[in-house]
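lol forgot to send this yesterday, sorry. struct tokens for the thing we talked abt
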């Protein structure tokens, strides 16, 4: 049984990972779990999978977890760690050979880096980690010999398409995008959309933050930056195509004009299992894609006027250094403010653009530098939103 650690076990990717572990009939065991504040679900996971170490957000959550375990008469309790340090302990759990990186946002940065430093296989679902500090992550993996495998469906698809292809044979990577809930909406409708409207994704069921990123199409912009670091391709060699059916998860165009596409059902368990078992392929409990039902596959160029976040992300990648970290942090704060109904949907890209224009990019030479840029952007955007709300300038 191959031991694994899961960073973000109570989120969508974490829960699906545990479903995959169950389906693989003893090929994997759970060594450690990192969660946030959902201690009730974490308690259930502890009872079922019996990890040696778990991490929660803070001391209060640790106390609540202990109460839940006591109420369920659990006698064999795991070690409980706190915060980012706790997540790092989960990532570095001595038993774990594979670390699933599924913590949302910049919180996953340090534990992912520590896992790569330690030479672990990291199955990464947290795109922000590579957006913020892709160069550092890649260098850490190269130095330790760690494997970095993508769980994001698009990058996982690219990884599958690239198996056996030489770097010089590949002309460009093509990331597919569903187009989100506003694919056919007018610019005015998009700019004035409510949180309820933006959270109605037509294809995938995901967490709130990533669903809003899909609605602005910032998720595709972040994925372009992620693909740059995963596959060593320039911005000009990475394209986006809107594909509403979400059947083709991504494609690779070769220099001879051939295009290789990875297709499958819209279920994250496919990508998770691939990353866990690579290079082997094991039988999956998921049904195969029924090609007879795929009567219509559509592809469109993305509209960067209605979805300016795409351009902002490409610009940040080309600028390099700490600019992608600022882009990501500004987006996180703006999305949170929109979900709290403190700003309009159309203000999300405006705030990101303003933050990037106000920032002077620095070389991303160490974690401290990118973390400082991340903190600067969060404070800058938060203060701008607060000033606007109070009517000051």
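and heres what i got for the seq, position by position
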């Amino acid at each position: 049984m191959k031991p694994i650690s899961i960073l973000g076990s109570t989120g969508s990717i974490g829960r699906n990972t545990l479903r995959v572990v169950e389906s693989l009939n003893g090929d994997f065991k759970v060594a450690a779990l990192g969660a946030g504040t959902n201690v009730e679900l974490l308690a259930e996971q502890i009872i079922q999978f019996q990890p040696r170490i778990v991490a929660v957000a803070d001391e209060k959550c640790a106390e609540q977890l202990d109460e839940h375990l006591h109420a369920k008469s659990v006698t064999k309790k795991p070690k409980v760690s706190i915060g980012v340090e706790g997540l790092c302990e989960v990532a570095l759990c001595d038993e774990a050979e594979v670390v699933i990186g599924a913590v949302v946002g910049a919180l996953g940065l340090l534990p992912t880096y520590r896992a790569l430093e330690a030479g672990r296989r990291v199955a990464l679902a947290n795109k922000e980690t590579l957006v913020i500090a892709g160069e550092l992550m890649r260098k850490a993996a190269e130095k330790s010999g760690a494997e970095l495998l993508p769980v994001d469906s698009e990058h996982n698809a690219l990884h599958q398409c690239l198996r056996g292809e030489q770097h010089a044979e590949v002309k460009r990577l093509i990331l597919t995008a569903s187009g989100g809930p506003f694919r056919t909406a007018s610019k005015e409708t998009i700019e004035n959309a409510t949180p309820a409207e933006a959270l109605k994704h037509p294809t995938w069921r995901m967490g709130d933050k990533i669903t809003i990123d899909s609605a602005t199409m910032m998720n595709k912009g972040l994925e372009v930056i992620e693909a740059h670091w995963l596959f060593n391709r320039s911005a000009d060699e990475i394209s986006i195509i809107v594909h509403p059916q979400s059947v083709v998860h991504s494609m690779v165009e070769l220099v001879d004009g051939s295009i290789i596409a990875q297709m499958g059902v819209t279920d994250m368990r496919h990508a998770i299992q691939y990353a866990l078992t690579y290079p082997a392929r094991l039988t999956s409990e998921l049904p195969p894609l029924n090609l007879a039902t795929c009567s219509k596959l559509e592809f469109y160029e993305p509209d960067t006027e209605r979805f300016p976040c795409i351009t902002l992300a490409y610009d940040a990648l080309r600028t390099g250094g700490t600019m992608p970290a600022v882009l990501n942090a500004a987006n996180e704060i703006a999305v949170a403010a929109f979900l709290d109904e403190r700003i309009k949907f159309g203000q999300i890209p405006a705030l990101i653009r303003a933050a990037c224009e106000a920032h002077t990019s620095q070389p991303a030479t160490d974690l401290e530098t990118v973390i400082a840029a991340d903190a600067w952007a969060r404070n800058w955007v938060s203060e701008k939103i607060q000033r606007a709300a109070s009517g000051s300038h």
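The mean pLDDT is 95. anyway ping me if u want another try
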